[in-house]
Fold LytTR family DNA-binding domain-containing protein.
Amino acid sequence: MNALLVDDSRLARTELRHLLQAFPDVTIVGEARHAAEARAQLTQLQPDLLFLDIHMPGETGFELLESLETAPQVIFTTAYDEYALRAFEVNALDYLLKPISEARLTVALEKARAQFLTPAAAAVPAASEPEPAPQPLSANDQVFVKDGERCWFVRLSDIKLFEINGSYTQIYFEQHRPLIPRTLQHLEARLDPKVFFRANRQQIINLKWINSIEPWFSNTLKIKLREGPEVEVSRKQSVLFRELLSL
């Protein structure tokens, strides 16, 4: 994969270049200090992958993407976590917080490789064109959650339950219970089905947080989550649950 590094900080570009040396399938074809320089290099070099900072002199990383007719796959690199939600809305592969760890970079590059192994590896469409369905998230991905004035950057593996609460969905992690304006259908489409299971019309559970399972009424199941509530699995989903988790 040919990669272009876009960051106004020379030190940040140097550190990222050093980290990428551990990945022989990634070739850095260029660097840019700001959006105008990046735009010219994108046209000239046609990279497969764009490591993109958000805060830069002049245009932001988001403004750069909005100005392009087509763009390569994008991995945001930034010191700020408040733009994570917007990053996923523009179909970014990943959102890496500085200082970038090799482990998180490894996860991001695995997503990039997966894209190039499928026909969907074509360029990301411009904002004016219909966007493809968002890419599924792995349990190791971190997501930005905002509820009122409070914000979190939480790893999906730490979320034990998604539950409908009125017209919102409530998220259970640690001692927090924020509400987000997303439907369970939207979340189910993005979550890893090997980790998250739709227990009923109201709830999606993280299988890794199950503490105990017991038979319940009418051939259904009741699941107790570690440090969390009990969840009753619907009859239809109880059958599916047994099929999925049986030898």
